[in-house]
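Support case: user asked for a sample of complex input and structure output to validate their parser. Sending the pair below.
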Amino acid sequence: MFRKIIYSISIIAVLVAAMSFTPPSAAKLIIRFHNYVGDSPMIFDSVSYKNQLGQPYRVTMFKYYAGNFHFKNKGGREYTSKRYFLINQEEPGSMQITIDSIPAGIYSAIGFTLGVDSIDNCSGAQSGALDPVNGMFWAWNSGYIFLKMEGISPVSNSNGKRLEFHIGGYREPNNCIKRINLELKHTVTVGEQTNHIVDIKADLSHLFFSPNPVDFSKLSSVTDFHNARNIADNYSTMFSVMDEGK
Amino acid sequence: MGSFIGDNLYFKITQKDVEFTIPNGFPKPLYDFKNNNPTPAGFVLGRKLFYDPILSKDSSISCGFCHQRIAAFAHIDHPLSHGINGLIGKRNVPPLQNLIWNTSFMWDGRINHLEVQPLSPISNPIEMNETIGHIIQKLQRNKEYTVMFKAAFNDSIVNSKNMLKALAQFTGLMISDNSRYDKYMRGEDTLSATELKGLQLFRDKCEQCHKEPLFTDNTFRNTGLAPDTNLHDSGVAAINGQMKDMGKFKVPTLRNIEMTYPYMHDGRFRTLKQVLDHYTQKFTRESGADPILVKGISLSEADKTNIIAFLKTLSDQTFLHDRRFADPSGHY
């Protein structure tokens, strides 16, 4: 019994010590991704969308890697968090991510890498978001798939009218890694004891639109280096910061 | 209690068995064991995985099925690889040796790291046709494996990272550095007059690509082989879409070449003599052959005999009979 009390006291002491040593300036920032197709929140299977050519399509899968989040404060200094996240429309829990221990401050811009840095494509076995069990690693040609979109379109000439866009590649000239930079309309003040949330919209329609419009009757499948770079140029404009007032 | 075959001293792996030092005269390896320090438990787990058909969809094929120890882990006497359901692949099974010095893997260099290499045969529909996710589920349900993962890794987790790290401990330590050639270079053995002539010829005519001591320069070259009209294999170009890489394949190591027949990326030559005959030809510019080969390498019949005698000094009996890499389950 006595030993138990001593034990408890020592645990409390350790906890108090740990709390008092937490750097006072570290805070959390929550980023929520919202997948859209044009102006409508993305819904799998049941909703038919149209690309810029008016060709109808449905979405059955949509996931992508976001990592290397960076935050620019008003003084122009940048803070980077190395971690990767796999944003998967099918898993609501993956749509909200938390950046831990970001220094307190006023931030005017945030950004991230869409995809996986070249060094992390060549670093061997990895776990977490980068675990190959997530189906986002190409076994036939080492490297991560950065973005996967699958669906169906009546004009597709693939088997089962399928659409398959598996975009990846870290080597030139087929490098599909994109650095996304987003200015914040209103600065975000990150401090202690508050949860700061930034809402980011990912608009899938960009994938088939600009600068390289996709005609599903001619291009319904991109699963290697052919055309991948064109689609990556399209997804580089896919993200925007949602109105913070909402 | 009966004893397990794993208790047999022949198969026992000690700390000494998994220690790595760079062999004399070898460069620094590209794979860094500092990030995956081999331990007896990790190595034994890697060995079990290597020889376990659980890695294939119908539990019919293990890594060791195609990679035979007696052939420096190539598939002896098989021109093309074999896979699940009796399917035949497009390429010759490469040997597994000195992998930690490789800059890339496979005949076309498509794999960039030793640890992720197994993912390719595992998921290939004509090899093991399995998914890594399903393999991890099978391993998590298997008591023997959960115990072995726990012994091998601090975090005890049965996941793909630990599985691939264990396999890399096993395959990474497959090192051939004790052939008669190596002993000669270290001053521990002599070569015959024929073998020495062969070595001299080799250094004059072959060394540019098959660089000592690894006997490859890790580059990709078109050796002027006529494209096989059934296989339609365009080599590196199929991976990167670059026309300049049409028909290019990795310069393979020549270590243990005596055991790894048949030869070339599609196993088209049965003998070393046929390989050398090929290289003495002239090639047209249209063939895409590497500039150093276009004019043909001039070799007399005696030269070829001498070079082949030298190449056989690259057979490494220590490696070929290394008990550490034997299959304790007795399957292969």
